[in-house]
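Re: the multi-chain job from yesterday

Posting the exact lines I submitted so nobody has to dig through the queue logs.
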Amino acid sequence: MMYEEDKQVTPSPQRTSLEHARRLHPAAIFFNLIKVLKETILGLGVGLIITLKESVIYFLIFVAVFLVLLIISSFLSWLRFTYRVEDNELRIEQGVFVRKKRYISINRIHKIDVTADVVHRIFGLVKVQIDTASSGDGAEVDLSAIKVTQAARLRRALKNNKKTAEQTEERVVYPKKRISWGSLFIAGSTSGTAGFLLVMMLAIFSQIEDLIPTSVYKSAYALFIESGIVFFIASVIFFLFLLWLIGIAGTMIRYGRFTIEKRENELFIKRGLIETKELTIPFDRIQAIGVKQSLIRCPLKYVKVTAVVAGGSFDKQEAFPVVFPLMKETEVADFLEEFLPAYAHISPEKNSLAKRGRKYYLAQSFILPAIALVPVWIFIPNYVWAVLLVMAICLWNGWVRHRNSGYHLDDKTITLHIRHVFEQETVMMYHRRVQAMEKKQHRLQQWEKIATMQLSLIGSDGLGTHYHVKHMEAMDIDIIGDWYSREKVETSLSDKLE
Amino acid sequence: MRQQPGNNIARDAIKAWRITASTYMVVLWLLIIAGGVVTFIFDFTYIYSVISIIIGVIAILIFVLLIPKIRYRRWRYEIYEQEIYIQHGILIMTRTIIPMIRVQHVDTKQGPILKMYKLATVSISTAATTHEIPALYEKDASELRDRISALAMVDEDDV
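And the result, structure tokens for all chains:
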């Protein structure tokens, strides 16, 4: 409504240009091609290899036909895809044979994310993803390639409507925080990707082991004998160092130039060295804020701040969007005060778990190595010490998990402290965000008056995010239950029953 | 999480569950009989047949006679103005609080066995979880469904 009036008063040229149906940049054809190729290559690959073995000519014909069809279909779908902003709606029309029209009211648009990878950058393009509140996988609208200027215009047109009062692009200074290269380097070197890469490489190696000719083994073995143990150790160290560097590079590329900005209704995050990603997190979609500390960062007192957001992020590898990749433990309070004041009083204090619960934690971490111990003892008794060592580490881990878990209850919020195997997590949520609460007790727990609690939040993927605190004092869960319950009936009910 | 919820589910649930469990037992016993026949034809030792028959009998005792009864006894629910309170579980007892304003939709469903006893299952979904109250009488189930959805509509603040 307001928008219409505005238009009559000041028919800005930018808006009229958006009202014409527009196509994406022709590079979208290419992106579509790549996307389809990526999706089909695995399925096709098998068929291709089989045909290649049968006959080379058929193989070439097959590939050529496939490519030609793909190019034609990509071209046609580009030709038939248009977008425009009209009557307060973003209107998308697409489809080669079956025409599909999608009209989205501007008011319903929650998120506009702009990303650009290397190819986009070369052409001065960006990818725009637009999402509404409806849950579901991925974005509602995916404009795979449009000019940077056009994207800015579109963004303004879609956003303007929400704050009709302040059309005059006031340069409000929003609080901003940028990660320094120094802390990025620390984040990379403590990211633990080195260990992950090592496992991956071993896995890959075990798969392709048969493909490596024995001569390679022989020469490698000869080299090893020749140069001796020192060389071997040096090369192992070098290899690990290399992995470590790869880990740092990965973090740098992913979180490089990470900037968070607090705007009126949302957090705006921009990051990435090669592929720039822009992410908006509307405040009213945040379900909880987590402070996470991995095992390696524990002695260094560094943490990462993440959010649980309804609808999640577009980054598939990151179920919980990272609000800030690395900061000192002591900086967290100030950071939250500035960017997420509602979560500023996230409490480092906690009510610990019942002492009686410790044995369950110990038993749980003990059981796997204990099972492993039996066959090792029988078949390779020389390695029993290794299993015992693992067992000791597991027991210690169980002990720490019990010690570092707990909760803190406030008037409107609850903070859970949960120690996972490799990570300490402190997560704070509001009463009204909790979808359901559960108390679980098996017979032994019942007898010892301890129980496991589960709080469920809306998750990134429609399945929900569930937080468990195991083996708490049962009375504590009852207290949390009374806090959670909107029906203050506990006294009247127990009166009735007694 | 005070006392346990007040209402039992329909008593006929025990019968319905017993029939369901019996169908599985029929399959198990067919296998046991088949094993016995094979043993008889090929003259294997009878010890395995004896063991499998013992297992079969124990399975009937546990899954058909015992578990439905305990399950029924443990299953309790209560619908308040503002929340739903559920308790269930045989080995692990679970108590759940679901606030009304978090309920997104309520369904009832009914399979052939439940239908025989005029029973239905009510399932309650929030944005993050789904909870089921099995085996209420049809009338109670639809009444409950309507009541929950009426109560759930009252207050709808932001997600």
